[in-house]
Amino acid sequence: MFRAKQVTRTLTLRLTIHYTVLEIETVLKSPTPRPKSLYSPCYERTLQATGYIIFEEEDQTKMATSKVFRVAGKDMVDVICNYLDNIEERPPLSQVRPGYLKDLIPSEAPEKPESWEDVKKDIERVIMPGVTHWHSPHFHAYFGTGNSFPSILGDMLSDAISCIGFSWIASPACTELETVVMDWLGKMISLPETFLAGEQGLGGGVIQGSASESTVIALLAAKMWMIRKQQEIDPDLDQFDILPKLVAYTSDQSHSSVNRASMISSVRMRVLPTDERNALRGDTLIEAMKKDRKKGLLPTFVCATLGTTNSLAFDRLSEIGPACEDEEVWLHVDAAYAGSAFICPEYRSLLNGVEYASSFNFNPHKFLRVNFDLSAMWVKDKRDIVGAFYTDPVYLQHGHQGSVEDYRHWQIPLGRRFRALKLWFVLRMFGVEKLQEHIRHQVKLAREFKALVMSDQRFTIEAEVILGLVCFRLKGTNTQNKELLDKINKSGKIHMIGTELKGRYILRFAVCAATTESCHILYAWQVIQDCAIEICDGVNGYKNGGTLSNGVNGTAEACISPD
After folding, report:
1. Are 447 and 465 in contact (CB under 8 A)?
2. In CA terms, which of 50, 219, 378, 534 is 20 to 30 Å from 94?
3. Which runs of E-coded beta strand occur in 340-416?
4. Residue 552 pLDDT exceeds 60
5. Dist. CA 216–CA 316, nearest whole Å
């Protein structure tokens, strides 16, 4: 049985040479069964006149051949492009209620294969209503997540190769490309050479899934590193005798994943106060470590943050680093969002002090046009991380062990995807200069938003604007600021989140999508002002802010999505 689908592009069809285009059109339009001879595999001819794709129904539903996949794959590319080209027309925050999806699809999987056409219809009907559109220029929540066509192409190839690159022999290109591109990336941010693999260095980079994973890996490695050091001093000590004495440190502004790492590793975590700029200082850390040593405890690990989630604060690495070196403590530096900006020379000084670190991490999938998941982690001495995770069953051994990297020893899971491909594609197809332009443009947009906030006496800036995040609040109570955020998100026009900073509830405005322009910044500010009017009317001493007019750094109306 055969099926014909109307299309607008030219495709090569398998047809018998004995049929003319007119005869084929007649047969296609006829309700009667077509003769098998029409689909003889002996000849190929390009049929443009009819505008039909002809393929066997069985092949189409089973997606069993590359011929059918070519058709559906090209169609999927169109779906992706149409989605991204028109994403601005969708509300950035999904408007569905919990449990919406189960009523739209059957309660059991289908017994028989379904066609691509049927599946494609359900993308819009079932999936899109429940999608929060992170790449909308009206999305200003959290931090942005990377997206680009080169990265998508890299993931397509990775999915096609579909190797499980746990060791070099499992797919040499998967391992070796990762080593090379991680050195590329390290050089782009001017990491000290001790972090690079180079020719025979002890350092090196590895791709993890997220900064959260990197922090867990670093803390687990630090734990085993310290246990081995103590056992060298006293070989009779058991690791479970040492473990209760280990202490880790971080700031009260670090990401929640740092505390989770403490839970996973069973290493107690001291959460230390920050200064007026929300940064952890060296003297605070030194005092905490001295107190713990007096108690007979062992300071083991410090997680410093460059660019906190709450306010994009930067811990004082130049003070923390020497303290960790003096105390012989593992220093891990988490620059999940901000790290990408270090490829720009004007922001590289924010990384000063990294030379004291034992490990460093940032997420190219946040700010560097690489799709999730790709988190870049470097260590100064790979022996420390390998020593924490090394297992070598016979079935994983191969003849090149010891002379090549086996990244299964650098992570918690065994299997790993070929993620280096998308990073390689992005670095090659954008180049460093275009990636620098992207970062500078997003920082410029954040500063435009900051200027708008400062022009309105009803609002205050709550933290220094360094990169693509602006923290601000209404001059009112925490409750009023929460109410303002609720109104903003319920409007369906833009999406933001809030946070607490030193007991004050603040609003976070992040420049996220790569397609964001000045007009979107103006539009977002207009939405915020409109939502603030009702709240500020009840606050004595505040005047209502005026709406933005056309012609100021672009036209706000040009970026308004339909309600």
Report:
1. yes
2. 534
3. 359-362, 375-379
4. no
5. 22
